[in-house]
Design brief:
Blueprint (H helix, E strand, L loop, with lengths): L7 H15 L6 H10 L5 E4 L6 H22 L9 E4 L3 H16 L5 E4 L5 H9 L4 E4 L1 H9 L1 H6 L5 E4 L2 H4 L3 H13 L7 E6 L5 H9 L6 E4 L6 E7 L4 H15 L4 E5 L3 H14 L4 E4 L5 H12 L4 E5 L14 E5 L5 H8 L10 E7 L2 H16 L12 H15 L3 E2 H8 L10 H13 L3 E4 L4 E4 L3 H7 L9 E6 L4 E7 H7 L5 E4 L2 E9 L4 E7 L18 H15 L13 H15 L10 E7 L4 E5 L4 H19 L4 E5 L2 E5 L7 H7 L6 H9 L3 H13 L11 H10 L4 H14 L2 H13 L3 E7 L7 H5 L13 H12 L2 E6 L6 E5 L17 E5 L5 H9 L6 H20 L1 H7 L6 H9 L4 H18 L6
Parallel strand pairs: 1-6, 1-7, 2-4, 2-5, 3-4, 5-6, 8-13, 9-11, 9-12, 10-11, 12-13, 17-21, 22-26
Antiparallel strand pairs: 14-16, 15-16, 17-18, 19-20, 20-21, 22-23, 23-25, 24-25, 27-28, 27-29
Length: 938
């Protein structure tokens, strides 16, 4: 790094002058702290609330110092060619936003700023190489790409600053592990650069600082300790999601009719559904914004907001980060935010300045969500934020960066030297040489690297570059299957290939969008799953909700405290949670009603187990959070299955565990036995993974990142199991297990819980009753047991089929003269059909967009020679005309069925007795078509 002769006081004064030139207010706390530290080129982590000017606190000192350096280089006749600062953000959209925010500061100092990410055009990339900017805004993945790009690599030699924005968003995912290794690889090019991290919400600040700078480097931690004020309301709405929407409309119409409002949801499905309902029920302008929408659609909505959009934008985490979206007057959150950091980030989008309190409404129609939101609000007031758990020693990410290091250096690399370099990343401080070497062995066996053992040198191969580029992203490439309802013949949603690969067999039942569906057939060519609805199904069916936001142990523990506090109302202060006394009374009554049968209030110190003699499920009430309950549920399932010899399945949420077994009754002794035996939690957990779809899926994705499977390959559970067995004692299986435990389980807290139960600090209470309490209903409703109703017996289903058939469009054509054709829906067709030109009753039908059949009939009537295909089409039309002549409109009604041809139609009409049986027969014919079409010739 170039050393400047000026003393620090002069540098500080230059930066201060820059602040005064650009900003129209006194420096905020974080800005006062940062410029003095950055003037000394010290690594720094900046932590401050939204609206406190964190971006300016990081970038203005850097711009000032780059400008001073440029002036000195000009006076010394030195070239300023090369990138001086890398500004890294977690999202491409945030790249564009940062550019808009800092370009004015940079331009005033004649400093160039450019963006380089996956969407950057070739011409712009070329321009960056030919005329490099001083500041380059990019993403972790794009940094990985430019490190191995020979021309870009040269431009990184003069990097003096690396700024990581929204560092809390990057650190806990595999992208964090990837970025930490990329920064160490950057030290092979530019040995000295200053690292700056920016965040508003971090629980474990010290670890985040270490993550930022790596091992054996110092980092200044700068914190703005002034807490942002929150003007919050918490509202419970009794009723459906539509009732909740009515309340939102009423709330906005009263006080925010001409305001910009963000309505956050936790899932994309919720945002789409809420957006649709709000549009139907109000005149308020509605926009929807989430990650599945196109880039253009998202940017259009962001533009609306920047221009002062008066209406509601229904969104997910896509608008959670610090995008510049103008002034937001109100943020509403539908359902619990699930995490403190989520609430702070999302509600903090409103009134985005340091002088005003954030305005937010949390609204829910779910009692679990209501109490959970109260817990999260309490933690906000306490300044308690979840600790981020990063991926330590992620071996597939390591393997990718080993190949990347060889590619970027353009020469063989010494094994030991590279090991020490990559181990400098904080997340890899405990990396063993054995695991490192094993990763290299997998890469060598896959011909992605080669080695000279006697010299300990590794070399690139012809496959190295393609593998590297295909696996730059740590976000799994997941194909989606469309789910087609055979009743309506319409798409009802999507399933991940993981679910289809493990569970997509004919006859299996699953839950999607609150309804149960039976699989008819999976079409892997078209990526479609054809299903039929069920009115009920056996209990042991998977509930597919995708990846949900986990609730941590502390939030769940406080929920238990709140339950107890509400029921002993003398100690409960509703104002603490932004509640009215009336609302408190309603919650008290409902909670008392739900808990009364249990006699003891379940919390983190009292675990209550519910059993009903007539049911084959057991409910365990334990307010221990998503990951602890997942771990306990898995342990109980494994232990009880081994003792009874029957399969025991489990389902868990943050506040309860459900155990079910069709063939064996779960007793008190079965559950108690878990806490009397001596065992290692992690070992039992790993043993329980064998053969499950969770581990199969992880193995598949990790194998892709190791280069053992092509990126586009469709998931195959049998191959995944073979890979797990084949690589059982290698880095592949080790990484798959580590990642699965990291994502879904909490081994350390579970060990503590098990120990406390054994020591009696946490008490178990067995409750036998004739029915389950109201507190059990949330998990029971997702596991509802009932008798499967045959699809054909449901009159409501038959009505849906009839409605579809009567609304199907057809094109009718005269086969005697070919002069007349007309499009009808089935219900519009007259009872007596005849051609208005030739009066013939021989009228045929075809698909309403068919433009060929009338021409073919005309050619046949004119005596022209037809091709074999055209002859077949004419013969079909003639047969169909005969059927319509004999059976009239009913024939066309039957032909409206999906995949029903002339022969099938004739058979169904011959067997016609009544409408209900005909509808059943049509549906069975449609099912047969869907299930066998893959075996037909054209």
């Amino acid at each position: 790094m170039t050393k400047l002769n000026e003393d620090y006081s002069k540098l500080e004064q230059s930066i201060l002058d820059k602040y005064r030139k650009e900003l129209f207010y006194n420096l905020t706390s974080i800005q006062e702290q940062s410029y003095k530290v950055l003037a000394q080129r010290s690594n720094a982590l900046l932590v401050a609330p939204t609206g406190s000017g964190k971006t300016e606190a990081a970038i203005l000192p850097v711009i000032s110092l780059i400008a001073i350096n440029n002036e000195r280089n000009t006076s010394d006749n030195k070239s300023k060619r090369g990138i001086k600062c890398l500004y890294i953000t977690p999202q491409r959209s945030l790249n564009n936003d940062v550019f808009r925010r800092i370009i004015k500061y940079a331009t005033s100092e004649e400093i160039d700023v450019q963006i380089r990410h996956g969407d950057t055009t070739y011409s712009k990339r070329k321009k960056i190489i030919e005329n490099p900017p001083e500041i380059l805004i990019t993403t972790p993945e794009s940094l990985g790409v430019i490190l191995v790009n020979e021309k870009m690599n040269v431009l990184l030699r003069d990097v003096e600053w690396v700024i990581i924005d929204e560092i809390h968003e990057i650190m806990p995912s595999k992208r964090g592990a990837y970025l930490s290794l990329c920064l160490e690889r950057l030290t092979l090019i530019s040995t000295e650069f200053c690292r700056i991290g920016i965040s508003a919400t971090i629980g474990n600040i010290s670890d985040t600082a270490k993550f930022l700078v790596g091992k054996n480097r110092k980092c200044e931690i700068l914190i703005d300790k002034s807490l942002r004020k929150y003007d919050l309301e918490l509202k419970f709405v009794q009723g459906s999601i539509k009732d909740t929407c009515n309340h939102i409309i009423k709330y906005i119409s009263q006080d925010f009719s001409k305001s910009s409002v963000l309505l956050f949801t936790n899932t994309r499905d919720e945002s789409e559904f809420l957006g649709t309902v709000l549009k139907d029920q109000s005149n308020i302008p509605i926009q929807v914004h989430h990650g599945s929408l196109s880039k253009d659609a998202r940017e259009e909505t962001e533009q609306f907001l920047r221009r002062g959009f008066n209406g509601i934008v229904v969104c997910t985490s896509s608008l959670e980060l610090g995008l510049d979206i103008g002034s937001i007057d109100l943020v509403i959150h539908y359902g619990s935010p699930r995490q403190v950091s989520k609430l702070i980030q999302r509600i903090g989008r409103s009134r985005h300045t340091r002088h005003t309190s954030a305005k937010g409404l949390i609204i829910t129609n779910n009692y679990d969500d209501y109490l959970e939101s109260m817990s999260i609000i309490q933690r906000v007031n306490m300044g308690s934020i979840e600790e981020q758990q990063p991926h330590e020693c992620s071996l597939d990410v390591l393997a990718h960066n080993i190949v990347g290091s060889v590619l970027q250096e353009k020469k063989p690399l010494d094994l030991r030297v590279l090991y020490e370099t990559l181990k400098s990343a904080f997340l890899y401080k405990s990396l063993s040489f054995y695991d490192y070497n094993d990763c290299i062995n997998i890469l060598i066996n896959s011909y992605l690297l080669r080695i000279e053992r006697d010299k300990n040198l590794i070399f690139r191969t012809g496959k190295s570059l393609r593998y590297y580029y295909e696996n730059v992203s740590t976000i799994p490439h997941v194909s989606k299957f469309e789910v087609i309802d055979s009743i309506s013949n319409r798409k009802i949603g999507t399933l991940d290939q993981q679910f289809v690969g493990d569970y997509g067999e004919k006859g299996n039942v699953f839950v999607l969008k609150g309804s149960q569906w039976r699989i008819l057939v999976v079409n892997e060519t078209k990526f479609q799953v054809h299903v039929e609805p069920l009115m009920g199904a056996p209990i042991n069916i998977p509930y597919w909700v995708g990846e949900t936001i986990p609730v941590d142990y502390e939030t769940a523990r406080i929920v238990g405290q709140i339950r107890k506090s509400i029921l002993s109302s003398s100690s409960f202060d509703p104002k603490k949670y932004y509640l009215s006394n009336l609302m408190t009374s309603e919650i008290h009554s409902k909670l008392a009603e739900n808990i009364k049968p249990l006699k003891i209030i379940p919390n983190s110190n009292d675990i209550v187990i519910e059993s009903v003699a007539s049911e084959d499920v057991t409910i365990i009430h334990c307010t221990l959070g998503t990951k602890v309950n997942n771990t306990l549920g898995s342990l109980l399932s494994t232990f009880i299955s081994s003792r009874t010899g029957h399969v025991v399945e489990y389902r868990a949420d943050p506040y309860r565990i459900l155990l079910s077994s069709v063939n064996s009754r779960i007793t008190k002794e079965h559950i108690i036995s878990l806490f009397t035996d001596e065992f290692d939690v992690e070992s039992v957990l790993i043993a329980s993974f064998t053969g499950t779809y969770n581990i199969n899926w992880k193995v598949w994705m990790v194998a892709k990142r190791f280069g053992l499977i092509q990126k586009e390959s469709v998931y195959d559970k049998r191959l995944a199991r073979l890979l797990y067995d084949r690589y059982r004692k290698t880095s592949l299986s080790k990484e798959s297990i580590r990642e699965l435990i990291h994502d879904k389980y909490d081994v350390n807290n579970t060990k503590t819980i098990v120990k406390k139960i054994k020591n009696g600090f946490i008490k178990l209470h067995w409750n036998e009753d004739y029915r389950f309490s109201g507190l059990s209903q949330p998990i029971l409703n997702r596991s509802k047991k009932s008798i499967s109703t045959p699809i054909g017996m449901e009159s409501g289903i038959l009505e849906l089929i009839k409605e579809r058939l009567t609304n199907t469009k057809h094109k009718l054509i005269c086969v005697r003269c070919a002069k007349w054709e007309r499009i009808f829906e089935t219900h519009e067709i007259p009872d007596k059909l005849s051609c208005p030109f030739c009066k013939s009753r021989l009228i045929t039908a075809t698909f309403w967009k068919d433009v060929e059949l009338r021409i073919i009939i005309g050619q046949k009537l004119a005596g022209e020679t037809l091709s074999r295909v055209e002859e077949n089409k004419f013969d079909r039309a003639w047969k169909l005309a005969s059927l319509i002549n004999n059976f009239g409109k009913l024939a066309i009604f039957v032909l409206s069925g999906h995949g029903i041809g002339v022969d099938t139609c004739a058979r169904l009409l011959r067997n016609f007795t009544d409408e209900q049986n005909l509808l059943k027969s049509i549906y069975e014919a449609e099912k047969q078509y869907v299930m066998t079409r893959g075996f037909w010739d054209n």
